[in-house]
Amino acid sequence: MFSHIMIGANDIQESKVFYDAILGAMGYEPGMIDEKGRCFYFTKSGVFALTKPINNEPASHGNGSTIGFAADSPAAADAWHAAGLANGGTECEDPPGVREGAIGKLYLAYLRDPAGNKICALHRMG
């Protein structure tokens, strides 16, 4: 459904360190900086990117917005969460763990990135 997701960042290098760590914990390659100073993470299923806002206003997070990253296991979600905390992320929501809802059991781990964007690692429990 999605070709790419791009979010704003006030400090691309700080955000790159953060996302290199959390995405690296799930096996992804470090991001690549292009000639315009944007950072891209290319995968088989799509692209995740960081950019300074083109209107020169500060980057800000969307209230009620969450970007979810698929995790292969609860351990992968925990590694993602730990890497985020060690690289400038902050905790939000409940601690990582299983939550039950209308679509079954999910293992969820939430963080805010250095720019305040709410992100999540999600593993669908069998």
From TrEMBL:
Q: Where are the transmembrane segments?
A: none
Keywords of the record, alphabetical order, are: Dioxygenase, Oxidoreductase
Q: Name the PROSITE patterns on file.
A: VOC
Q: Which residues form the VOC domain?
A: 1-124
Q: What InterPro entries does this protein's entry cite? A: Glyas_Bleomycin-R_OHBP_Dase (IPR029068), Glyas_Fos-R_dOase_dom (IPR004360), VOC_core (IPR037523)
Which GO molecular function terms does the record list?
dioxygenase activity
> Which SUPFAM superfamilies does the UniProt record give?
Glyoxalase/Bleomycin resistance protein/Dihydroxybiphenyl dioxygenase
> Under what name is this protein listed?
Catechol 2,3-dioxygenase
Record organism: Microbulbifer marinus
| Source lineage | Bacteria, Pseudomonadati, Pseudomonadota, Gammaproteobacteria, Cellvibrionales
